[in-house]
Structures are given as structure tokens and as C-alpha cells.
Amino acid sequence: MGTKSDAGVGYDDASFYLFAMAMLSLVTVPWTVVKIWRLVKGKDKEEERENLRQHCACRRCQEKAQAIAKQKKRSYNTWARPSNIFVFVSWILIILLLREIRRSPSFKAPFDPFEILEISKSASDKEIKGAYRRLSKLTHPDRNPNNPEAAERFMQLTKAHQALTDPVGKENYQKYGNPDGPMRSSIKLALPSVMEDHGNLILMIYLSSLIVVLPAFVVLWWRSNSDKLATSISVNTYRYFLVVLHASGRWRDLLAAYASAFEFEHMAVNNPRKFAPLRDVVRKSGAEADLKQIRLYMDVKPYLSENILILLAYTHRLGIDEEFQPRLDDLLAWTEGLTVAMADANREEPRQDCHRTYGRTVFGRTKKIMSAVFLGQCLAQAMKEKDSSLLQIPGFRETELKYCNSKSNKVRNVHDFVALDIDARRRILRNFSDDDFLDVNEFCLRFPTATLKVAAPKVEDEIDDSVHEIDKADVEVTLTVKRGAGTGRFPCVRNLPDEKQEVWWVILDDKKHDVPLAIKRLKPKDFDDEGNATTKLDFVAGIRGKYEYVVHALCDCYVGADVYSTIKFTVEPKLENTDSLKYFDTDDESDYEEYNAEIEAGDEEEETDSDEDGEADGGGPASAVQQESSEKEGIDELSSAEEEDDDEDDDEDEDEDDEDEVDEMENGKGLGANGSHTTSAVTEDM
């Protein structure tokens, strides 16, 4: 331990330990603070109870909330986690390094003879000698033969006494801070002294880690993350959704595309005999028709058939065995992420039929995006495509549905049922137990009732209130969501394995062209305490004419909670530049006036010269004007013909680009041969 040198190169252990401790502290200290904060937060019983109170009070939601809270608490209190072990070992290393640093001579306090002799700086020579005699008797080596610390202390006392009594030592101390005179200074490397004997080996290890280990780590990290988008969705999944949504928007096909996502590649393939009972149940139920009509646009993967069977059994409420429940939870955990990816993928679909109206500024189809959102609603509430919205109410079956739809009750949808008072609900659900009826009331209290307020389109900084061609306009939308209890942070989604917040999709749709002009996703944080959320939907106006836009508000947690509002307006012709429009604002326009006067004077001189030349040639001014006008007409005809040719070429190039884009999507990674869909492959495999 200490400072060593080899051939003029110094190695300082203490500096190396200090550097290592600083680098280790940069990681360990913040990580420790975060872990302590999480630990304290996880042990806050009152906060945990308040969180449970905010959850939906139905039994299944409460069971799910308690299971999630226990899982979080278990993760906080698991001391054997790798991260906790790393923090613990890091603190031990920091303490050991600090201990070695304090022992190093390089980091000892500056030489102070008064402090060593335990006297004040105004002490007389007599006091200095007395303190030296008293302390030296206690630390003399003859009295402490086996105590190296006493010997070191005696040497310091002698050196301090010399610095204060000996004339030469006193002069050196005053000049150089040491009675021995000037000390030799040296520059040393903050590297361990072990490099004195094994420098080449340590250097080789360092270079190997820098050239081999670090690049290998970067490559492995890149390979594991390069195939994912910012939303953690696989690029291959996104490509497959592009192909499916370009060809179909049916609910069955979207469900099969969901089950085909590459996020489920890790799922183990089970023995076919294990799925035989579930396969028989699906085939004997109404799900058999959906199974036969499913279209696949990729080769059948081993996990695909099993995923489709489980999702069909789930959406048709056929019952899932406990052995398949973990796999169903894995499938439902991706509900929000994959449905958002479907909507985003559809917005990449080219719309050649809208180019004349909107140019190349619009993509996708509104109905397909709404189908993707509807798929998420069905997965959240365990429903199939044509189910009544009443079936999402806890405990509802076909028996209760028929009774609600009877002539005496006239309850056609979930809104009609929520509007009933408790007594009327109890009469309809007279066969329900008290606990089951409480679950129904809790669902009704949390079911949202939404209203839309849509303002007319307007253009910022426009000279009039009209919308003109190619204007960048916006529509202000206010969405109001009311409910009997609770908030959008904890909706009643008892079938999903994880917590989920209520999200509202606000879509601006051109009803005639079925094109989404703007999309916003409103989360609970976007709503105020009164349940209002205001947003602006920006769009680019089309060509002149009358338009009918529809603003849709879709809830991703419930079926039947969607609302819409229609607006009609007229797009005026594009504004032409006029003298009344002022593009430059200057206080002093004299320079511009002088400049314009010089230009006008020059134009008059040129006209005079041209008139004289025309008369000399015998043509006269009139003939010159006619010749000039005929030349302009010829140039205009030629330029218009060239523009028509360019437009035709652009249309041909555009068609070729769109065809190439579709071909690339259909030939993407993991797709079937020639990009064709297969209808019977999955049915035969099942």
C-alpha cells in the first residue's frame, strides 16, 4: 500500500482508490436513494388502502388489485434480488476503499507542529519544551517496544520540537512547511501499484475489455432492441399489421392478427392432446363459424393455433381451464399496446382515392381504426363482435339479456340499464345474490356517460372566418365524461390481468371519404375535476366544396360508451394575393418608394426605345404589341402542355410507388408465400 515507481513512472494506490470510489458512488448513491424511496412508498399502508378504495369495488377488481399490491410489495421486500445484492456489495467496497484512502500517507493532514505538541500557536519556548518532554515520555520506543504507532508518534513529536526550537528547522518550516527543507515534488498516475510487476497483463485485460467486451455488450443490446419500436412493439408485428389492415378490417381477422403478434413467439408449444378438450369446446359452440372464416396473412406459427383457440374461447365466454389462464393473461397483457399498433399501422395505408381532394396529406381508413379500438374493447370485457353491450355487466348471461329485451322492460343497451334506479335493476336481477347485485351496481356507477361539444373549423391568423383550400385549420373538441363514482384511472376491467387506465380516442373523420384527418388519445390526466377535456384536432382543408365531418369519441375500456358529433361546413376557394395584404412591416418606406420610382423610369425609357426601333423597322408600336402578345400566347400554350405531361408522369409514378409499397408490405418478414392469405390453414391445423 502506498506510492511506488518504476523507471521514473509513479503509481499512486490512494489516488486510484479515490477514483474508483468516486465512480462507484455515482451509481450506488442514486440507486440507493431510489430503492429507499420505493421501500418507504411500498410500506405506506394508508396509501395502499386508499389505492384499493379508489379501485372498482366489485369482487374481481378488488381481488386483482390486492394481488397486484402484494406482487409489488414482494418485489420491494425481496432482498435477494440482483440489484439489491449489487447495491449492498457496492457499499461494502466503498467503505473498504475509504478505509484504505485514510491510511495512505498521501492523504494525511498537513504538518502542524503546534497540533502535534498539543499547544497553542502563541506558546513560549518553555511551554514548547515542557509539552515535548511530557508527550515524549509517553510515546518513547523504550517504553513501548512492540507498538509501531507509538514509535511513529515519537518521531512526529521530535520533528515538531525541531521545527519550533532549532533555528534551521524553524527557518525551513516557515519557508517550506517542513523542518527538513524543500521536498521533491513528483507526478504519479492514479493506478494501482500492482502494475509495477504486472503492467503488461493489466494493460492487455483493459484493452481486451475495451475492444471485445464493450462492443459485444453493445451488439447484444442492439440485437435485443433494434427490432422494436418506441412503443416496445416488434417491427415484424407492425409490418404484419400493415398487411392485414390493408387487406381486411373484419373483427375476426383482427383477432387472428392479434394472436399472431411476434410478441408471443416465446410462448411454449404444448402437446396437441392438451388442447384437444378446448378445441372440441370451441368447435361445438358458435365460435366454430368464426374459426372457419378467419383469414391469415402469414405462415401458421406453432403458437398461433393455440392463441386463436384461447382467445375465441375467452371472447365467446366458453370458460378457460386454470392451466390455460397464465397464457390468457399473457395475451391480454398486450391489449392496449397491440391495438394502438394496429391503429398506427393503418395510418400508413396510402389513399389514392383522396389525392384529388386532400393531396398526399391523408392516410388510412377511419372504419379500420375504429375496428382496432373495438377489438380492444371486446378483449377488455370478454365479448365477441355482435354481443349486446349488456353482456359486459358482471354476471349477465343470455337469460338476463332476454329478460331485459322483453317488451315489459325495454332495456336495449347498457345505457338504458345504467339509467334505471336500484329497485328497477333489482327486479330485473331478482335471481342475483346480494354480492352479485353489488358488483352490478358498482359497474353501473363507474360506467362513463360522455357528451361531445364540437366547434366549427377555424383558421388561425386568417383575414376572415372561412376555411379556404389548403388552409391549416383546427376543430376544438370538448369531451365531457360523467360517472356515478370513481375516476378514469380505475375502470371496471376485471378481465385484464394488469391495471389499466381509461383512454378516449378522439377521431376527426371525413364521412364521405372514410379518412381520419386527426387522432388524439385523451388520458385521465387530460381531464379536469369536472370531467372535461378540451383538445384541438388539426387538419389540412381539401379542395373547395361542402364537407361533412364526424368527430368520434371512443372509450377503450367499455363497449357502447362511444359518442359522435357531426359538423358541416364549406371550404372556400383559395385566397389570391391582393394589395391589401401586407407582408412586410416597416416604419420607413421611403427607400422602397425611391426604388420603385427608379424602376418605373427605367421601364418608360425602354418602352420609348422599343417604339422607335419598331417604327424604324416599319412595324410601328401596334405591331410590336401584337408580336409580343402572340409570343406570350405561344409560351403559355407550351408551358400548359408541359404541365399536363408532368401531371401525367406524377400520377404514373405515384401509382407505381403505391404498388411497390403494397408489394413490400406483403413480402415482409414472416409473411406467407407471395403475400397471399390462407383461409383454411389454421382450421386444418386446429
What's a concise summary of this model?
Helix content is 53%, strand content 11%. It has 686 residues and is of the alpha+beta class.
From the alpha carbons, calculate the radius of gyration and give it in angstroms: 41 Å
The geometry reads as: elongated
Helix and strand content put the structural class at alpha+beta
What is the β-strand count? Answer: 12
Helix content, binned percent: 40-55%
Strand line-up across the major sheet: 6-12-11-8-9
* Strand residues, percent: 5-15%
User: pLDDT below 50 for ≥5 consecutive residues: which ranges?
Assistant: 578-589, 610-639, 641-646, 652-686
Distance between the termini: 72 Å
Quaternary: single chain
Could you give a short account of the major beta sheet? 5 strands, mixed
* Total helical elements: 25
Mean pLDDT, to the nearest integer, reads: 78
